[in-house]
Amino acid sequence: MDGEIVNIDGNGNRVACLCNGPDNVIIIAGMNKIVRDVHEAVSRTRNIAAPPNAVRLGLDTPCASSGRCTDCFVPGCMCGQIVITRLSRIPGRIKVILVGEELGY
User: Fold this and answer.
1) Rounded to whole angstroms, how far apart are CA atoms 42 and 64?
2) Percentage, residues of the chain above pLDDT 90
3) I want to staple 15 with a disulfide (CB 3.0 to 4.6 A). Which of 26, 31, 47, 83 is the partner?
4) Rounded CA separation 30/101 (Å)
5) Phi first, then psi: what are they for 85, rounded to 5°?
6) Residue/partner pairs of 15-23 with CB below 8 Å, 24 or more apart
7) Apex 37 CA angle, 59 and 24, nearest 5
8) d(CA 99, CA 87)
9) What is the CA radius of gyration of the chain?
10) Phi and psi (nearest 5°) for 55?
């Protein structure tokens, strides 16, 4: 809700384009991704999105077993890269489309 975008990724390949790369980035997100602030976004991603995604991918991580983030550093950790996008120095490069329903984790 404060205008920042939080993305968490294991390898960084899915978040790299937010930092640098294509001339246009389009983010399509469901309303379940909207939270109050960065702290809540990191917590939501680590505790609500990462565990079922780790299960889906068949990863051997503590969050896949427990259903909650344990702040692990195991090889399959899904939270290796945490990218907080506060602004794009190229105006209009990042576009966010919010869909009025829940999408994904």
Assistant:
1) 17
2) 89
3) 83
4) 5
5) -95, 110
6) 15/81, 15/83, 18/83, 18/85, 18/94, 19/83, 19/85, 23/93
7) 75
8) 21
9) 14
10) -65, -45
Distance, CA of 87 to CA of 66 (rounded, Å): 35
Note whether 54 and 78 are within 8 A (CB): yes
The residue type found at 98 is L
CB 46 within 8 A of CB 10: no
- The encoded tokens of residue 23 equal 């001339």
Overall pTM surpassing 0.85 (yes/no):
yes
Half-sphere exposure of 54 (CA within 13 A, CB side): 28
pLDDT in tens, 32-74: 999 999 999 999 999 999 999 999 999 999 999 999 999 999 9
